């Protein structure tokens, strides 16, 4: 028994107590808390926790963060001023409260406790609800329409019309936050059963019904656990036995856990009062869980039952059965889809107001964060944390009131990707095969949008094969989307793609070795020259970009000079002068022997271009004066 005021952690029975009242805590958050409590006063890194709790299994780091939110909710802890769990940015966690070893254990069902059974039951139910709703205190913003759709489903379920709601969207878009807000603000109106199951990457192929068993475990540990266990005992005993709970019948093997038995038991439970089941990250679910969901949705008998299925379509394998199930249920009107898109600039501003607890934000902050996050809530929070950690945003006292103030120009803030976010994106990239990683890296050389022919050029690959692989990536990954087709000068067509976020592109660009990146840039520049042979001047800017990125200064300067001369031919002297000035700046990087001759020529051409600008400016000024005089 471990004690940290006012809590006691019963490691034998895996229970958490507060002042003698048991608090329901799902197995994984309990395991995280136990590991921290058993290692107090020292840094426990993210890697150490992952290795201790998920050995030989890859788990997204967001899962760990979700469990920390669960624990802070249950413990009443504040991440800003922690009493129990301190976050060490970019490294891990430290349990900071004093821990005492106590003899003995509590009984899992306390007898003669200091509080009455009814009061203990009520407090345990409150704790159970807190563990189900793993959300921050702040209310959700910009999702009013989506919340209303979930409310409508809830009302139909309450009237006996079973509902399956798919909550979908890309990683970090706020799917869990939306469902958390629904559970916190709307679901309690049902006064029904609630349970939640979490799918974990890597477990789907090893353990059938993992999220279902977690949800059933929560039901049996809730204030209505006795009723749930009784119904399972009578109608689906093999499922109850799988939870390790006593059963009148002998334990049967997992193969006897029939989906029909559990469907009937859940419907019986929903006859007592409405039942709400939430399954998270179903794109990692096992096939047996998907088949159970299909059976629940298709049964024709009325039931006060609602299932909320959260998943990222782009994270699922191309042949994942969940995709086919969702499409079939939508077509048959047996399910609805609530798709989350990026937040608007107004919603991002409201989100920043909430997080900073400040009504008037530093000028331009909301626009900067919205532009760089592209409305993804996870990226919004990562950028905000980064700005504060790097002291671009500082809290200052003004007239006795503390306000957040901007301490550096936004141009300086543009550099790089926040470390935590970069690590998360890097982990997603590492899940891909080597060939897919190389293709995305090559695409990042072309800015946010990239054509398949450029990827093929960078990798010395076949264009048709490369386009086919890019098309496959766009269909199953949330990294890239198909954006259209271009017609090349030789008459062939090539598809082009866009990165879902500029931050993905930045991480992919920076992860390449400089020498490899330079070689690929040069190949693209040379391919552009081949495609536009005889008309290189019209693509000279693009060629210069790639030569400059590769450190080929003479090639970049010559391409810019070609673009400047083309501007002169088009009677655009101001543009020509700008390009000559850029070429001059690039040429400063040349070696001493080359630099002298090239700079001399460029200065002469720049001077001539600038002189050509002056008469145009005078004519424009004169015409402007005459126009104003007539007015």
Please render the helix and strand layout as text:
Blueprint: E1 2-4, E2 7-10, E3 15-18, E4 21-23, H1 27-37, E5 43-45, H2 46-53, H3 61-75, E6 85-88, E7 92-95, E8 100-101, H4 117-132, H5 144-158, E9 163-168, H6 175-185, E10 193-198, H7 210-221, H8 225-235, H9 237-242, H10 259-272, E11 275-280, H11 287-298, E12 305-311, H12 321-331, E13 336-339, H13 345-356, H14 365-373, H15 377-389, E14 393-398, E15 401-406, H16 410-413, H17 419-430, H18 434-444, E16 449-451, H19 452-459, H20 463-476, E17 480-487, E18 493-499, H21 502-510, H22 514-531, H23 540-549, H24 553-569, H25 573-587, H26 592-630
Parallel strand pairs: 9-12, 9-13, 10-11, 11-12
Antiparallel strand pairs: 1-2, 1-8, 2-3, 3-4, 5-7, 6-7, 14-15, 16-18, 17-18
Helix pairs in contact: 1-3, 3-4, 5-6, 7-8, 8-10, 11-12, 13-14, 14-15, 17-21, 18-19, 18-21, 19-20, 19-22, 22-23, 23-24, 24-25, 25-26
Structural summary, described in words:
- It is a single chain.
- This protein has 631 residues and is of the alpha+beta class.
- The chain has four domains: 1-134, Winged helix-like DNA-binding domain superfamily/Winged helix DNA-binding domain (Arc Repressor Mutant, subunit A, Orthogonal Bundle); 140-341, 3-Layer(aba) Sandwich (Rossmann fold), CATH 3.40.50.300; 345-419; 428-613, no CATH class.
- The chain is built from 26 helices and 18 strands.
- The strands form five sheets. A five-stranded antiparallel beta sheet has the order 4-3-2-1-8.
- Strand 14 (393-398) and strand 15 (401-406) form a beta hairpin.
- Helix 18 crosses helix 21.
- The longest helix is centred in the last third of the chain and has 39 residues, at 592-630.
- The protein is elongated.
- It starts with a strand and ends with a helix.
- Residues 107-137, 250-255 and 616-631 have low confidence and may be disordered.
């Amino acid at each position: 028994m471990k004690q940290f005021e006012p809590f006691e952690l019963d490691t034998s029975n895996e229970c958490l107590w507060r002042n003698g009242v048991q608090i329901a805590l799902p197995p994984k958050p309990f395991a995280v808390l136990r590991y921290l409590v058993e290692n107090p006063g020292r840094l426990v890194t993210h890697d150490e926790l992952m290795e201790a709790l998920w050995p030989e299994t890859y788990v997204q780091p967001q899962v760990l963060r979700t469990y920390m939110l669960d624990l802070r909710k249950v413990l009443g802890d504040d991440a800003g001023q922690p009493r129990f769990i301190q976050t060490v940015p970019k490294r891990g966690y430290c349990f900071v409260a004093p821990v005492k070893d106590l003899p003995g254990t509590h009984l899992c069902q306390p007898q003669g406790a200091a509080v009455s059974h009814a009061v203990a039951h009520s407090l345990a139910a409150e704790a159970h609800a807190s563990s189900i709703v793993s959300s921050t205190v702040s209310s959700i913003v910009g999702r009013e329409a989506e919340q209303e759709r979930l409310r409508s489903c809830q009302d139909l379920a309450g009237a006996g019309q079973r509902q399956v709601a798919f909550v979908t969207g890309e990683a970090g878009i706020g799917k869990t936050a939306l469902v958390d807000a629904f559970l916190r603000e709307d679901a309690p109106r049902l006064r029904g059963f609630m349970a939640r199951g979490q799918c974990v990457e890597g477990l789907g192929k090893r353990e059938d019904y993992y999220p279902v068993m977690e949800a059933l475990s929560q039901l049996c540990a809730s204030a209505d656990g006795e009723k749930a266990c009784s119904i399972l005992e009578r109608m689906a005993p093999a499922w109850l036995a799988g939870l390790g709970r006593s059963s009148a019948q002998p334990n049967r093997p997992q193969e006897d856990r029939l989906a029909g038995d559990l469907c009937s038991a859940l419907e019986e439970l929903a006859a007592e009062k409405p039942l709400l089941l939430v399954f998270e990250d179903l794109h990692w679910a096992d096939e047996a869980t998907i088949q159970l969901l299909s059976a629940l949705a298709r049964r024709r008998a009325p039931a006060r039952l609602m299932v909320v299925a959260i998943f990222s379509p782009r994270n699922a394998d191309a042949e994942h059965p969940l995709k086919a199930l969702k499409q079939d249920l939508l077509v048959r009107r047996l399910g609805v889809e609530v798709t989350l898109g990026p937040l608007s600039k107004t919603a991002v501003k409201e989100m920043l107001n909430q997080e900073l607890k400040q009504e008037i934000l530093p000028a331009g902050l909301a626009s900067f964060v919205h532009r760089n996050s592209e409305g993804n809530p996870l990226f919004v929070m990562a950028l905000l944390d980064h700005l504060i950690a790097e002291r671009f945003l500082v809290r200052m006292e003004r007239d006795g009131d503390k306000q957040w103030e901007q301490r550096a120009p936004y141009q300086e803030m543009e550099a790089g990707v926040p470390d935590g976010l970069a690590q998360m994106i890097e982990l997603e990239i590492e899940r891909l095969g080597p060939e897919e990683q190389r293709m995305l890296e090559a695409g990042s050389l072309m800015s946010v949008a990239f054509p398949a022919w450029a990827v093929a050029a960078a990798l010395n690959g076949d264009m048709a094969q490369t386009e086919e692989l890019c098309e496959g990536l766009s269909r199953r990954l949330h990294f890239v989307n198909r954006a259209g087709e271009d017609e090349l000068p030789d008459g062939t067509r090539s598809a082009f793609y866009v990165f879902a976020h500029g931050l993905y592109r930045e991480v992919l660009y920076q992860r390449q070795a400089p020498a490899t990146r330079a070689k690929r840039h040069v190949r693209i520049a040379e391919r552009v020259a081949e495609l536009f042979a005889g008309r290189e001047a019209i693509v000279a800017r693009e060629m210069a970009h790639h030569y400059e990125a590769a450190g080929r200064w003479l090639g970049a300067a010559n391409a810019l000079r070609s673009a400047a001369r083309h501007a002169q031919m088009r009677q655009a002297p101001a543009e020509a002068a700008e390009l000559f000035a850029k070429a001059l700046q690039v040429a400063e990087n040349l070696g001493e022997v080359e630099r002298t001759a090239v700079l001399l020529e460029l200065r002469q051409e720049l001077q001539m271009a600038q002189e050509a600008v002056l008469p145009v400016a005078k004519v424009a000024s004169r015409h402007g004066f005459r126009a104003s005089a007539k007015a």
